[in-house]
Amino acid sequence: MNPEDPRAVRTRQRVLDSTVRLLAERGVEAMTMDAVASTAGISRSTLYRHWPERLRLLIDAVEHLGVQLRDTAPGDPAPGEGLEQELQRVIGQLGTGLRSSRWGAIAGSLAVAAEHDEALAEVYREYVHSRRREVLSALHRAQRSGELADSLDPEWAVSLLAGPIYYHRLVLHQPFDEQQVTEHVSRTVSLLRSTNGTNER
């Protein structure tokens, strides 16, 4: 099978879209290979030619949705972008993703399933860690520039920034709206800066 063949590309796209829809509507446990094949309107043999393993399909579907969300989010850092601007952009992307009916539902389902499946837990951890790395990079740059104190624990700061976003979506089922995310990031950056003896914006 040639993965660059237009028919193969269309089939893979249809399968990924169908898998995302299935995950969002019915959860991780319902995402069986039979269910995906039925939802995508293809045979099981065709599905297995593209994805021999369910876990690989799940990983690709999560990444597929992530690409879609990133394509609709603000882009890379602009030259001269300050700490608060960068965190507003990155945490704003997180808030937008969790407000999405699809990703919000999938994230919750994946978090629950990961409690009982180490392979799924690894998928979930990689998603979370990839978001954490973006925030950590911004914090480390701010420490190197002197905007934040060297004594600040970046891991604690990430939890302070992202924790409430996840809590409101996955526990309270009341995701922050755009204004709430903006206000949360602004207040948190002020708190982080206060450990450096400054509260400048």
TrEMBL record:
Protein keywords:
DNA-binding, Transcription, Transcription regulation
> What is the annotated signal peptide range for this record?
none
Q: Which GO terms describe its molecular function?
A: DNA-binding transcription factor activity; transcription cis-regulatory region binding
Q: Which PROSITE patterns match?
A: HTH_TETR_2
Q: Which residues bind DNA?
A: 32-51
UniProt cross-references to InterPro entries, sorted A to Z: Homeodomain-like_sf, HTH-type_TetR-like_transc_reg, HTH_TetR, Tet_transcr_reg_TetR-rel_C_sf, TetR_C
Q: Which domain of life is it from?
A: Bacteria
* Record-annotated HTH tetR-type domain positions: 9-69
Q: Which PANTHER family does UniProt cross-reference here?
A: HTH-TYPE TRANSCRIPTIONAL REGULATOR RUTR, TETR-FAMILY TRANSCRIPTIONAL REGULATOR
Protein name per the record: AcrR family transcriptional regulator
The organism named in the record is Actinopolyspora biskrensis
